[in-house]
Design goal:
CATH topology: Aminopeptidase
Order of helices and strands: EHHEEEEHEHEEHE
CATH architecture: 3-Layer(aba) Sandwich
Strand content: 25-35%
Largest sheet: 9 strands, mixed
Shape: globular
Helix content: 25-40%
Structural class: alpha/beta
Radius of gyration: 17 Å
Number of strands: 9
Number of helices: 5
Strand order of the largest sheet: 3-9-1-2-4-5-6-8-7
Number of domains: 1
Length: 226
């Protein structure tokens, strides 16, 4: 993941910037592919996303849209259902003209959730949006009953490694020459057990810290209700 974590203090912003999390749909794939080509040197073909979206029981893909205009969004009642069941204020599903500025996905198979991709548009980085996407994946992995989360990350991508380490992920191995564009190695990183009560509590604390940071940045994250 390319999004870096800014640690400096920030002052509250008067103008709210809204972003909406939503399930990735087939109609989103061309726009996702265009964004991916801006973010990565070895993007997936569009056909890979269409294939992934055909198996929603095994795969989970989301997009993050920037609500650039002042259009109103109709809120939903907040529904509770678990420690991380609903991270952000829900809104009703709707067809959106707003641009996709981030996306993420994972597989969930045999009790393991494996992060396949996370990307944020260059002009929207350093705002915590990559962390929003990452935490949303972890939350969904918990909801689906996964026991842990794994991922690969470039050995040179220290910013992403720092974010993953913040969430308790540790290096468990190396995949030599994993990335096809430059044959760079990848670290394999794995989360603590997702069912561990202490880790669940840590996630809640990290969520609260993230929400406070977003509020200070003048950012509101809405989540399309299922």
């Amino acid at each position: 993941m390319e999004e870096a974590v800014r640690r400096s203090g920030v002052e509250p912003q008067s103008e709210v910037r809204r972003y909406v999390l939503a399930p990735m749909r087939s109609d989103d794939v061309p726009e996702v592919s265009r964004l991916e080509r801006r973010c990565f040197t070895n993007p997936w073909p569009e056909s890979a996303y269409y294939r992934e979206l055909r198996e929603p029981d095994r795969n989970y893909y989301i997009v993050l849209r920037w609500q650039a205009s002042g259009a109103e969004i109709e809120p939903e009642p907040v529904v509770t259902g678990g420690p991380l069941a609903r991270l952000f204020r829900p809104v009703r599903p709707r067809t959106s003209p707003h641009p996709i500025v981030g996306f993420a996905g994972m597989w969930v198979i045999y009790g393991e959730a494996h992060v396949t991709t996370i990307a944020v548009a260059p002009e929207h980085r350093r705002l915590g949006l990559g962390e929003v996407l990452f935490l949303t994946l972890i939350s969904e992995a918990i909801r689906r009953g996964a026991e842990f989360v794994t991922l690969e990350v470039r050995v040179s991508n220290t910013a992403a490694q720092a974010l993953y380490a913040k969430y308790g992920f540790t290096q468990r191995g190396v995949r030599p020459r994993y990335y096809s564009d430059n044959l760079e190695d990848a670290y394999i990183m794995t989360s603590p057990p997702l069912r561990d009560p202490a880790y669940r509590q840590q996630l809640l604390q990290l969520r609260d810290q993230l929400l406070a940071r977003l509020a200070a940045e003048g950012i509101e994250i809405l989540e399309e209700a299922a």
